[in-house]
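FYI - complex with zinc ion, inputs then prediction.
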Amino acid sequence: MLERAVEDPQWLNAARILLHVGASTTATLHGQPLLSFVQEQADNNQAGFNDLLEPFLRRLGQDIDPWVQPTALLEDRTAECPICLETLWTSTPTAFVKLVEGGGQSVFHVICAHFFCFDCASQQYMKQQQAQANEYFCPTCRATAHEVMPMPDIAVNPRLWFQFLDVNRSGEIDQNMAVQALEAMLPIDTERLHESIAGGWAAWAKGHVTENDFFSKGGLLEWIRAHQHDLANAVKRGAAPSLPADDLQDWFRHWDVEHRGTLDKGQVLRALCEASKTSSLETRRIQELKEGITKVWDKYDLSLGLTRQHCKEPKLAADLAALAEKVAGMAS
Ligand SMILES: [Zn+2]
Ligand SMILES: [Zn+2]
């Protein structure tokens, strides 16, 4: 349908409607991820595709099963600006870049994997300008650059983000670069991320990421968008009431965001991550939570989900609270 839309814009409306009713954002077209195709057409100024890109990107990562792939992140021990030690992910991560011209377009790309807060990068840039050097350089590794530039917003233009991090212009981002960029843009504990990758935790973490890998189902883009959605939802929800060992009514109301009257295993896992201060990067603690939740599911016959009625059962409440407490006390 999208292929026909390139010739006949009528098909775009149909695509927009399908997307609205929940069509998959991670399908492929002749082996090319659909999103990558839409972005390519938008970049070529193909009429209508720019409008289609936005809902595509908004949807991407929202239909991930939180039981299979939990996306809870903790906002402690995250990467800092190496100059002022400000938390990096909330202060516009910025890098020293070079400009390359190609195919009628100019593209900025980083020169190294060092990110700074916007203020420090700008100050460094002005200092170097006053020293009247011919070129600028990264204050950490002294690689030479043309400019400083904030990391492009992946939710607005993922291809620009990818090109920004493609330091060798090879059509690939190496894993180290991807990890440094993730730490700069999300609340991620560096040590835990490295451990998780070593444990084979993410499909995209396999040495390098090509543009097709990046846009594909289960790829880095979907992974990042899923975590960004989770963070935005957490802000909307606010802090959860503590998990009381007797009555779960308030707790249930807090987590039943869509007022469905029932919580599934994935939602309970997300809730217990928060109660036990567990990040989804901590594979052992996640495993423990999953096993505990599965036991509760069997014991109280929750095959249709956890309802408000179940929450009046003090034994069930006590079991969930005990599970959260046990996992909170585990070494990560
Ligand atoms: Zn700084
Ligand atoms: Zn550097």
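Residues 2-59 form one domain. The longest strand covers residues 94-102.
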